[in-house]
């Protein structure tokens, strides 16, 4: 298995040797945001949308991205090129408010943001795609409700998701389905969720307070273009138990476990969108 790489302080290094400060607010307070994208043969899919969502997260958290030590696009490129085309990878960019004590105050205001990135082999086992993964519906809400934390920000605050995933695993499952605070089906711990019933797709609407997943948006578009019935709406969790099938979507995991039709559609779409190769990807990003 390939060794993980990291971009830190302008250099690509072995991830095991990369360091950030123990005083970094990402570490002490989860005061930051991130993006994870998939590298296909060395090229990031949907880089422009990932960068746009990172910028949105930074704006919503009031982290001055323009004071980060480098441009995220340049960091992604340096790391993707160092990783190379032999194996797909999971590339993560993490942005924090930087090194400063105190919950808020002038020191936090003055801090320069920390920007680091890592790339590791895709962590999803083949079994997920061949057999589908086992998901359990947990009677607990996803992370903070929208009134507490705007779900458009992909923040570092994943502890509720970590605990939910642990609980799912203790119960012999691979993934947990979480509820919104008002008891609607929301999303999985690191993926959006779709239900399939009688050939029609349904997914929680954004008003449920979920992450506006990029793969979710692609699947909605592809399914509609294929003439499939698709609904975005509030979903009662009991519908999950009654569904013919449940699909999870995420940039790195793609579509799992799946009607092969949707999974194949997504794969084909990604392939076409990267078909112009490196020039097509890097030249669209300024
Ligand atoms: C909570 C949550 N929902 C949904 C997703 C899927 O989002 P995307 O398709 O943009 O990767 C993720 C991905 O990390 C996630 O963490």
Overall 3D geometry?
Answer: globular
Main sheet, how many strands, which sense, barrel? 6 strands, antiparallel
Record the strand order, biggest sheet: 2-1-6-5-3-4
Quick one: how many beta strands?
14
User: Nearest-angstrom radius of gyration?
Assistant: 19 Å
| Oligomeric state of shown chains | single chain
* Spatial gap, N to C terminus: 33 Å
The ligands bound in this entry are: pyridoxal-5'-phosphate
Count every helix, treating DSSP H or I runs of 4 or more residues as helices: 10
Mean pLDDT rating: 91
SSE string? EEHEEHHEHEHEHEEEEHEHEEHH
Percent helix, as a range, is 25-40%
Poorly predicted ranges (pLDDT <50, ≥5 residues)?
none
Structural class: alpha+beta
Strand content: 25-35%
Describe this structure in words.
This protein is an alpha+beta fold. Helices cover 32% and strands 26% of the residues. It has 10 helices and 14 strands. The strands form 3 sheets. A 6-stranded antiparallel beta sheet has the order 2-1-6-5-3-4. It has a 5-stranded mixed beta sheet with strand order 12-11-10-13-14. It starts with a strand and ends with a helix. The mean pLDDT is 91. The structure holds pyridoxal-5'-phosphate. Pyridoxal-5'-phosphate binds next to helix 7 and strand 13.
